[in-house]
Amino acid sequence: MRLEPVTAMIKIENAEKTFVMHLQGGVELPVVRGVSFQVREGECVVLSGPSGAGKSSILKMIFGNYRCDGGRIGIRHEGSVIDLATAEPRQVLSVRRATIGYVSQFLRAVPRVAAIDVVAEPLIVGGVARAEARERAGALLRRLNIPERLWALPPSTFSGGEQQRVNIARGFVSDLPILLLDEPTASLDAANRSVVVELIGEKKRADVAMVAIVHDDEIRHLLADRVVDVTSFAAAA
Amino acid sequence: MAEHERHQPLLVADHLGKNYGRLTACRDVSFALYPGEVLAIVGESGSGKTTLLQLLSAQLAPSTGKVSYRMRDGVLRDLASLGEAERRFLFRTDWGYVHQDPAQGLRMAVSAGANVGERLMAVGWNHYGRIRDTASSWLERVEIDIGRIDDAPRTYSGGMRQRLQIARNLVTEPRLVFMDEPTGGLDVSVQARLLDLLRNLVSELGLAAIVVTHDLAVARLLSHRVMVMKGGRVIETGLTDQVLDDPREPYTQLLVSSILPA
Q1: What is the pLDDT of residue B231?
Q2: Disruptive mutation site among B189, B226, B235, B239 for chain A (greatest number of A CBs within 10 Å)
Q3: Which of A39, A70, A181, A209 is 20 to 30 A away from residue B9, measured at CA?
């Protein structure tokens, strides 16, 4: 029997995205085209390029949050490959439950829900018992230096940096095989930045495939196994 | 729920339409709803969303097309072909219907406990103590003080009435709940509490739900999927965050861009 080659967890082929702004007279805003790269298990690929080059859009396409107008976004999900560019909504939801986690730039807070429950939710959705989920959520919040007295409060009342750490905890709490990170260290101080670098290192060792956007050169150097330059996918009008 | 049941649709709309004389209220709507799935129908007043909800919940007969529902025996049946006993079973047990105006879904002059207990008695419960215990535990779940169990809902605030209506609907453990603008008449702070409550109940109970709303924030918080309606047609459909963050149709872009920032 041959050894299996290292599997691509994400395989993007010729993906493209254009916004059509109907309220601005149908103006077409090409974002990216010909996006092609792969990410293997345990690998962290960092997307580089200036603001507006389409880095966040690519992450959102891999998460199924932005629609893909052409090409293929192959995701290894529960033992087979699913194309997110053409998947049904319920398949996308299933991929998000079991395969892809996403740390967005900003926390979209739900009113009235306590920080610890915001963090524990992905685990509960994945079938972990509430008590255990909250315990794991608490451990991560503690590591990210969110004081315990804040855990029972809704994060909408927190500072920007605290909200971002709650967001990071929510993204890192579950054991999903793919993680997408949009500027995970942007609004953090040095101490918390190094916690996030540590967390990402742990995910790598757990064979998680990651795609990240990181502006800070030093951090990028620490995290990136490979850099994909997004300017090559620029979709000039 | 058995694993294979999750993968079979609970309700299927097939080319559904409704005309009033020459006026078309709703045309050619097709979709499948799966167990545990929450679908939001959004659009402005007059877009046909309430007509659609009434067609889906067998309160109106369609002019064209049909609605099928998977009964508890696992068989998908055309709602128009159901007998009276089966229809009663759906309305009293297997479905819930939350009206925008709680006065339409409650009996305003009888006690809160009786409002909840009545649904249980309708399905054959007859032990007073058990009915009262179940009603009390449901009032607790919807955050109504047990001390108010013997008061009639006309003495309740709008938010409490809406929570009572939800308890009355969920006490029979329905598999599908229809909601027509469930947060419509409420103050913003009361809305947030109700939404949070609904969101938790729906996920804890694994309910399927069809929610009509003109409020995109409600759709974002509660639903997995949305259908955008305009002029009686479904003009855009998809995963909720996808449709709201990357709207494709001119009308959907207009709706999304019309949200006032908080």
Answers
A1: 93
A2: B239
A3: A70
Show the CA angle centred on residue B259, arms to residues B257 and B262, nearest 5°: 130
DSSP one-letter string for B83-106: -HHHHHHIIIIIEEEE-SSHHHHS
Q: Which residues contact A56 (CB under 8 A, 6 or more apart)?
A: A105, A182, A213
Q: Are B12 and B67 in contact (CB under 8 A)?
A: yes
Tell whether the model's pLDDT for residue B259 goes beyond 80: no
Task: Tell me which residue in A64, A66, A89 faces B225 most closely, judged by beta carbons.
Answer: A89
B134 — phi, psi (to 5°)? -65, -40
Strand B95-98 vs strand B176-180: parallel, antiparallel, or unpaired? parallel
A138 Cβ under 8 Å from any chain B Cβ: no
Interface check B246 vs A, CB under 8 A:
yes
Element (H, E) at B183: none
- Across the interface, whether the CB atoms of A112 and B225 are under 8 A apart is answered no
Residue with tokens 């003109």: B214
Q: How far apart are the first and last CA of chain A?
A: 50
The pLDDT confidence band at residue A212, using thresholds 50, 70 and 90, is very high
B70-117 pLDDT tens trace: 999 999 999 999 998 899 889 989 999 999 999 999 999 999 999 999
Predicted complex ipTM: 0.90
Domain holding B183, by residue range, is: 3-105+174-257
Domain count, chain B: 1
Alpha-carbon distance of B31 to B12, in angstroms, equals: 6
Structure token pair of residue B249 = 């149709």
CATH number at residue B25: 3.40.50.300
Disruptive mutation site among A67, A91, A118 for chain B (greatest number of B CBs within 10 Å): A67
Of A107, A211, A193, the residue nearest A145 (C-alpha): A193
Asked, for residue B250, whether it belongs to a domain, the answer is: yes
Rounded mean pLDDT of B131-139?
Answer: 95
